[in-house]
Amino acid sequence: MSLTRAERTIIVSMWSKISTQADLIGTETLERLFSCYPQAKTYFPHFDLHTGSAQLRAHGSRVVAAVGDAVKSIDNVTSALSKLSELHAYVLRVDPVNFKFLSHCLLVTLASHFPADFTADVHAAWDKFLSIVSGVLTEKYR
Amino acid sequence: MLSAEEKAAVTSLFAKVKVDEVGGEALGRLLVVYPWTQRFFESFGDLSSADAILGNPKVKAHGKKVLDSFCEGLKQLDDLKGAFASLSELHCDKLHVDPENFRLLGNVLVVVLARCFGSEFSPELQASFQKVVTGVANALAHRYH
């Protein structure tokens, strides 16, 4: 699966809107993840996961920043996320199903914050992009 | 599966949904975001672009039909398997739809609800809806053999 030129344009354009509220989007994505998919909390026994927690905010920022890194290197996501890919494969070992859950929660957050911008084409491009990002992050699992 | 509060919250939000529009949008987005799902709708005419799909009258009509069915299911949250038994048989025996598609559509519906309701569609409300769409998808798959 690779992105068409049109999809790349859509993704980059949407990112410029997301980046104005990046931390908020990141935090809300994680809140949605942990509310809807409690199994994801098993990877964070050391975190305070209550709404408004500093750790949740910090981690949400980190996750969205990584998505932003992928957008900025959209022509070579594999290279941009190489270190993160190793981290997930050898240290974190998050079950791949959770990337689907996280991606879905990010899309829901985007739809909620950008109802007019989040058209069907934008939805499709971002779903595909997050699927590619997830693939890169799980690439070295075995 | 859902507490009394969750059922009330879900029912209350859904009462505000414009069933005509949301059904068509959800089905349309399914066909745009996951184009392989178009395999079930070859008789629907022009599905060549997102605009064509979302404007397609057959997509809108079928989307409404699907959502009406979903609404009926919401009235029987305590027995979704019973509520969707005959539809389950239909989707298996006549329509030959892979149940994975019910999961995909359920998640697209959640995205559409988020778009409609913005911040009102809180993480907690989303969690309740995720349980509902999962329950409906499982109920529709229940009679498969």
From TrEMBL, chain A:
GO molecular function, one term: oxygen carrier activity
InterPro entries from the UniProt entry: Globin, Globin-like_sf, Globin/Proto, Hemoglobin_a-typ, Hemoglobin_oxygen_transport, Hemoglobin_zeta
Domain Globin residues, every copy: 2-142
UniProt keyword list: Heme, Iron, Metal-binding, Oxygen transport, Transport
Keyword Metal-binding in annotation: yes
Gene3D superfamilies associated with the record: Globins
Pfam families: Globin
GO cellular component, one term: hemoglobin complex
GO-annotated biological processes: hydrogen peroxide catabolic process
PROSITE patterns the record matches: GLOBIN
TM region(s), chain numbering: none
CDD domains associated with the record: Hb-alpha-like
Family to which this protein belongs: Belongs to the globin family.
Chain's role: The zeta chain is an alpha-type chain of mammalian embryonic hemoglobin.
Protein name: Hemoglobin subunit zeta
Organism: Bos indicus x Bos taurus (Hybrid cattle)
Automatic annotation (TrEMBL), chain B:
SUPFAM superfamilies per the UniProt record, alphabetical: Globin-like (SSF46458)
GO biological process: hydrogen peroxide catabolic process
Keyword Cell division on entry: no
Keyword set, alphabetical order: Heme, Iron, Metal-binding, Oxygen transport, Transport
Cellular component aspect of the GO annotation: blood microparticle; haptoglobin-hemoglobin complex; hemoglobin complex
InterPro entries per record: Globin (IPR000971), Globin-like_sf (IPR009050), Globin/Proto (IPR012292), Hemoglobin_b (IPR002337), Hemoglobin_oxygen_transport (IPR050056)
Entries under Pfam families matching the protein: Globin
Subunit structure comment from the entry: Heterotetramer of two alpha chains and two beta chains.
Name the record gives this protein: Hemoglobin fetal subunit beta-like
Organism of derivation: Bos indicus x Bos taurus (Hybrid cattle)
